[in-house]
Amino acid sequence: MKKFVFILLVVMSFSLCAQKYKTVTIVNQTTKYLNSGGRAILGGVSRIPIRVDLPQNTVAWYYSFTTSAGVSGTSMLNLAIQVAAFAEAGSLGGIVAENIKVPNGSNSVDVWLMPLDQKDNFMKEKSVERYDDLSDFNTKQDVKLINNLLTGSYYLGLRNPSALEGINITIEVVALVK
Fold first, then answer.
1. Structure pTM?
2. Which regions in the chain score pLDDT beneath 70?
3. Residue 48, helix vs strand vs coil
């Protein structure tokens, strides 16, 4: 009987370790053009909010982005494909984020992760409550792992910090779900 219980515990341990995760694309790869701050004063757009609605049973989620100068040019992020490959291999979390490839960016952008109720403040250029440790400031490209905000909805606020140059930002958001 003891042998049976031991074997049962071993089998259960292996099945828990072999638990599969599904990759869910929250925001398909998209490219947005952000005007410079100077152009925004004359009617352009230098900031855009992107809503992130997390699916149930999210265990981690990622956003990645890259930038390019001017009004043309896009880069392929392939975040969903990369995260799925690592999840299939049994890797999660920081190991995945460190190994995801993001095309080199050319201009800096701010990506602010913020609660839903901060969207209007962000758009009106007022003081914004945001998660600074999960945001990126003055960065050309990055991949960010979020493993502590796993339920609900948020906004990623994309902001061009340049007063003179417009930029393209290509961004994608993916969740790992049990």
1. 0.76
2. 1-19, 39-40, 70-81, 85-106
3. strand
Look at the chain and report how many structural domains it folds into.
1
Residue 15 lies in a domain: no
5 in a structural domain: no
The CATH number of residue 140's host domain is 2.60.120.380
Through-space distance between the first and last CA atoms of the chain, rounded to whole angstroms: 33
What DSSP element (H or E) covers 65? Answer: strand 58-69
How does DSSP assign 96-123, residue by residue? HHHH---PPPSS-EEEEEEEGGGHHHHH
Q: Tally the C-alpha atoms within 13 A of residue 26's C-alpha that lie toward its C-beta.
A: 28
Find out whether 63 and 88 touch, Cβ atoms under 8 Å: no
Domain extent at residue 134? 21-177
